[in-house]
Specification:
Layout lengths: L4 E2 L1 H8 L3 H9 L7 E4 L2 E5 H16 L3
Antiparallel strand pairs: 1-3, 2-3
Length: about 60
Amino acid sequence: MSEQIKKLVEVKNITGLSTSTIYRLASEDKFPKPIKLGSHSSGWLGSEVDAWLEQRIAAARSYS
């Protein structure tokens, strides 16, 4: 398995979201939840963050 783990700073840069928004959306099941890597370290699966971003782009581009 070669899944890439992204740290918070990378997720913030990719999404443009703030730290508090990322954690709030994750707690509301509207953003991928972080994976605990250690006692003081978390990360996100890159594929989940990419999929979330693609869904947001698709929703913004859909015209009803």
